[in-house]
């Protein structure tokens, strides 16, 4: 059974940082590229970042590039997203998402967890 458990969200002031984590189980984590996606209130699910199976390639949406960093630890089946210089527009529920595998894709389609809420205020 595929299981993805996000954590690390919370309330933050604009300009500060958070680090999201996702614990994966029930599948061969190292065989899948992984994504972070987010959904703001009243909005569609939005792709945020991708990382290849081995972590050697990453890709970011334009509005988070240079502020967010995706990483993974295949030994411990963990996915991370460092959110720096947070902006109010980053307020959303954040999900880690298992894609169809390889190659890395800018997609919101796949299996995701329950999410972790990030709320940014001024």
Would you kindly provide a written description of the structure presented here, covering whatever features stand out?
- This protein is mainly β and 122 residues long.
- Helices cover 0% and strands 49% of the residues.
- It contains no helices and eleven strands.
- The strands form two sheets. Strands 2, 4, 5, 6, 9, 10 and 11 form a seven-stranded mixed sheet that branches. The protein has a four-stranded antiparallel sheet with strand order 1-3-8-7, with no helix packed on it.
- A hairpin with a 4-residue loop joins strand 7 (68-73) and strand 8 (78-83).
- The radius of gyration is 13 Å and the shape is globular.
- The termini are far apart.
- The mean pLDDT is 96.
Features:
single chain, 122 residues, mainly beta, 4-stranded antiparallel β-sheet, 11 strands
Helix content: under 10%
Strand residues, percent: over 45%
Rg over alpha carbons: 13 Å
Question: What is the average per-residue confidence, as pLDDT, rounded to a whole number?
Answer: 96
Gap from first CA to last CA: 40 Å
- Helices and strands, in N-to-C order? EEEEEEEEEEE
Topology readout:
Layout: E1 3-7, E2 10-13, E3 18-25, E4 34-39, E5 45-51, E6 58-60, E7 68-73, E8 78-83, E9 92-98, E10 111-112, E11 116-121
Parallel strand pairs: 2-11
Antiparallel strand pairs: 1-3, 3-8, 4-5, 4-9, 5-6, 7-8, 9-10, 9-11
